[in-house]
Structure formats: structure tokens, C-alpha cells
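Here we describe the complex-level prediction in full. Unlike the single-chain runs in Section 2.1, the two entities below were treated as one system.
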Amino acid sequence: MSAENAFRIDVDASPETGGPYPVLLRQGILGSLPAVVQQSVAAHRWAVVADHTVARLHGERLLDAMREAGLETQLFAFPPGEAQKTRATWAVLTDELLERGYGRDSAVVTLGGGVVGDLGGFLAATFLRGVPCVQIPTTLLAMIDAAIGGKTGIDVPAGKNLVGVIRQPRLVLVDPDVLATLPDVEFRNGLAEAVKHGAIADASYLDWMVEQRQAILARDADAVAGLIRRSIEIKAGMVAADAAEAGPRALLNFGHTIAHAIERVSGFVVPHGQAVAMGMVVEARIGEMIGVTRGGTADRLCAALEAVGLPTTLPGRYGETGDLLEATRSDKKVRASRVRYALIAESGRPARSADGDWTIAVADADVLRAAKLGSTTISRDETDI
Amino acid sequence: MSAENAFRIDVDASPETGGPYPVLLRQGILGSLPAVVQQSVAAHRWAVVADHTVARLHGERLLDAMREAGLETQLFAFPPGEAQKTRATWAVLTDELLERGYGRDSAVVTLGGGVVGDLGGFLAATFLRGVPCVQIPTTLLAMIDAAIGGKTGIDVPAGKNLVGVIRQPRLVLVDPDVLATLPDVEFRNGLAEAVKHGAIADASYLDWMVEQRQAILARDADAVAGLIRRSIEIKAGMVAADAAEAGPRALLNFGHTIAHAIERVSGFVVPHGQAVAMGMVVEARIGEMIGVTRGGTADRLCAALEAVGLPTTLPGRYGETGDLLEATRSDKKVRASRVRYALIAESGRPARSADGDWTIAVADADVLRAAKLGSTTISRDETDI
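The structure predicted for the assembly as a whole is:
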């Protein structure tokens, strides 16, 4: 990675969610952590929250650096996996912090993927009515998505992320070095969100990804840094415009209503990125069907997704039953009991409803038809019906 | 109560905690609830949170009014008492709301005292990353203290209110009619906070309470409305100045470090108001001892507290052992492992530390000496030592 790949993006988040904060990317920035965090956060005790896997890979290095700099730092680790993103884990972490004497002068550092970021962010937001949080995402998905925007949350039996708050971190640190240990399926989870950023905001970014597909998949440092930068810029722009998610931030849900339904119907066996990839295709087809999305958009999206190794067709059984449809109903985006979708007008440009809304209510029949279309091989002619 | 006792106070809370909102007081305002809440909150479903006692006393009336106005409203009730202010009750309420199909278009109405306000406020703040909250306090304490300022929270094994967020309600409605059913001990809990408001911000308010003591204790409508109004004004002023509690809001903790310790040492048998009354006297004596508080202030405070029927001396055993001191250490206000107190310079005027801080670090020996003094009958001469 060349030196000019180090960058800083300021997220101009609204005051009601915690105000502006910087995202810093630099290769090896984990090693200079103490100096960087102390500039942004005045705290006397630091709680590093991580799962056991990430703690083993990067935790000791980080703790050593903090302690060498004279910062009182302890590790709070728990087993890996989405199954840990619960009220129970949050309660255990809270009680452990209290037991070890953490007070209002402490700060939480989350080191990990989306689960750790969401859970650790919620911990920081609710501990003694809120202590500062520094997010250090270690997956591509968390770097370009979960760590930016202040969404924190935990899962409950009724669904994912149904409990939480929106509260910005004080600082986000991205060290692309940590991606070296990221499994391929996790890396592609991140790429699905990058494609989404292109789809909702920047068609040329989508084209760039297709061009750079080999470098991206080979995790070439320049290509990866370029991708992280552009994706964070797009997400940060939407967060700034609308931190409370009343308006344009809803666009970030493109593909996600169907994706969440796919994850639910599969018993959370389908990885998030694959579900988002399939979800975007189905939602683009929904848009084409109801005349909101320009014809050919779904196919263009398919090409981009396939270029970076992501699936574009649903396993047959998802499109053939009403299960998927039923699963969309338990999504948070149900408003006044109708399911609304964030759709695009064409690649790189969002759609708006007739009354200017950022989401569009869709009839069940259209959802089902798009899912069925998406679950078989589609010829160009059929798509344009 | 005369018509001019109906009033509106705007709490100019900072954006990062949720922004400004009105407090409305009017006799019988519960009956006109639907019109009032609809003006401030756009929601399709309303969840009224209350304990069984308050639900029985006022819940049905409120629900009937909401339903007659065509608002979809349901009651979510739980057993009364501080023992319910837990993560478990919060989890049950969250899951019940989800089960009954509450989505982002819903709002939470808390109907009750501090426990319900704190717990219901935390529920609203964390449900689907936050839905609007309307606070309807039914105790004097909640009307003038807990419902104003956006503090929400629950208790954990390590202590009270150690988990929560600061998030302002959209609206606070005070109907003094509901005080008719309030037990005397609860009414006096509220009076202790009113005395505190006088002690930290307005000596003439303290004098007024002494003058009006008979009318206040007889719950004369004019006297009670006057007291609620002045106390809310004082609290609202401090919330506006400092919603995140970094500065002057700390003054609201006057008397509370010792009060929390008394409650803890007593196994939470001493009612909060009595603990606060005793705590203020001890903390005033601490201030006099270390030269921060003008001599005679503690005695003046005693006179005001006694006028409204509140205790001013600690049961002997509290002052004689180190238990009380130990209990102050687990308070949230411990910063960098030193116990800091919000003290007053004299009646109606706060004290500042040498470096301008709103709290002052106190040596254990001084705390212990003041507690010992406060636990025996003190003559004027001894106090002035």
C-alpha cells in the first residue's frame, strides 16, 4: 500500500446522535493506537471488547501498545459469533466492567467485526448512561458499514438488532493490515455492501469495482484501500445527511429487506453478504416490475456482483413458497403494517416515492413475483416483461 | 387550584440528548391526554407502561381516553417497586411490545413514579433504536425530578442506575390530581428534592417552603402547584445548561452521594427522600468542615427539612462505622478513584472547586467526621468548630 492510501474522513453526524468524528485509515495504525486515541478521548481506563478469535489475532498487540503508553487497559473477551449478540452477553460485559471498577472516566474500544462493534457500541452507550466509544473494525464489512454511523444493537428472540441506540463513536480506526487474516467468505460479505454503495450512490464506483475485480479479490492493498475509502465516503455522506434514519439513510437498506428475510428463512445459514447480494437483485427486479427502476438495472447489478464472486440467484425453494414474504413482515421497516422498500431508480441513483419518501410500499404479489424470477435462470427477454 | 396554576415550562435540553420539549401542568390533564400527545408525537401505536398499582388507579381512565380518541393503545404493566427496575423487566417489556407488533411507528407513555419513568424511558430509548417517549409522572418526586432531564436507567447487582442512557422525552405531562392517592412517605420523598432545589439554586424558595409548610403538607392545590412549578424551573434550568452532566447538572447530586450510601447500607429500607434529607445535612456539614460552605448553612437546611417533616440526623450506627464511607465508593461520581461531592457555598448558591469544577474531592476523614457529627444531637457551638 502506498503512503497516499492513508486517509482521514470526517463523518459529519448530527448532534442528536453524538456529533462529528473522524475515521482514520492507515496501514499499521493499530501499533500507534495510544497516541491516536488519546488525542480524541480523555479517559483514565480503557476496556477493549473483542471476541476470542480477534483477541487472539490482534488483542495482545493492541493491549501491549496501550499498556506501554501507560494507559490502564483490560481485555473483555467473549465467544465469537452472532449468537453472542444478546442481552445476556451485554449484561455480563456490563457487570464485568463494574466489577473491575470501571467508572465514568472509562472508554470502550471495540475490536472486531459487526457483532463486536454493535454489542460493544451498545455497551458503551448504556454503561453509566454512556461512556466514549472507539471503534476498530477488523472485517471489511465492519470497516465500510457497521462501524460508520453510530448504529448499535443486540438481537432478541423476535429478530436481529431490535434493541439498541444510535450513538456515534468518538473515533473509528481502520488498519487494513488486519484484513490479511480475514476468511474469504467474510471478505465477500464486505464486498456486497461495497456494491450496494455503488448501486445507491455512484455508478462509476460500480464500474471501477468490475474493472478492478481481480486486484480486489487478490486483496491488493491499493485496490482495497480505494474501495474502503469510497465506500466510507458514501456511507458517511448518508449518515451526515440523516443520522436518525428518517430520510436518505433508509437507502442503505437497499437489498436488505429481502436479505434479512433470506437470512431468517435459512436459519441464518446464508452469510450476510450473500443474502445482501441476492436481496439487491430481487429488489432491483421488484423496482423494474413496478416501474420504479430502469429496465436492465438488475442485470447490471448481477454483472457487478458476479465479478466479485457473489451469488445473484436465490436457491429455488426461497422463491417458491410464501416463507420469504412472511419473513419480510417482521422487518423493522414495516410502517403502519405495510412493507416498504428502499429501491433504486437506476445504478447509482436512488428512487423516491410519489410523495418524496425514501422508501416505497410494495404489494406482496410483486415481491413474490420478483423472488420467483430471481430464483430461476432469467433470460433478458423475460426480465424486460 | 386556580386556573393560573396551569403552566407550561420549556426544557431547553441540548440536541445531543434529544433537544427541547415542554412540561405541561394542568389539573385533570390526563383526561385530555389524546389531544395533547398527538400534538407533540406522531405515532400509530401507543404503549402505556405502568406498575400494577398505578395501572389500577389511573391506567384504565387513561386508556379509555386514548381509545375513545381512536388511538391504538395497550397497557404494559408489571409489579410495583424498585426491585422491578431490572434488565429482566426491561427485556420482558421489550419482547411483549415486539410480540404485540409494535414497530417504529409506536411511542411509549410512562405512567408512574421514578421506577416506571426510568425503566420506561430506557425501554423507549432502546426499542428499535429509539421510539418517542411521553412521561406522565404520578409521584411528586417524579414530577419535579425524575421526569425532567432525560435520565433513564435500570439497576444492576452492582448498584442503582448503573445502566441507562440520557435521552429526553418528547413531552412531560403533570396532573396534580393524581397526587391525591400518593402515600405520605412518597409525598415527602418529593419534598426532599424540592428542598434540594432551594439549597442549590434559590434561598428564597427555601424560605417560601418554610412559610408555606402547613399548606404544603396539607397538599393545598395552590401550594403544591407553586412548589412543582419552581422546582421544575430550577431543574429545567440545570438540564438546559448541561444535559450531559459534565458541569452544573452535577449540582443536582447535592446530598445524593451520602443519600445513596445510606440507602445501600440500610439495604434500601430508608426511603429515598429521607436519605436525601439526611445526606444534604451531612454534605453541608462536610462543606462547613473543609471551609467550602458558610457556617450555619447546615442548621438552616435542618430547619427547612424539619419544617416539612423530614429527618435531619442519621441513625447512630451509620455514623459510627466505616460502612457508610465504604458505600460512597461505589457511587458513579467516583472519578479517578477519588470521591467527589457536589457541595453548596451557602443556601441557594453552589460551591465550585479551586479549578472551577462543579464537584469537590473530599478526604475520607472529613466525610466520616461529618457523618459522626450528623448522627448525634449537635449544639450550635460544636457545629461552628
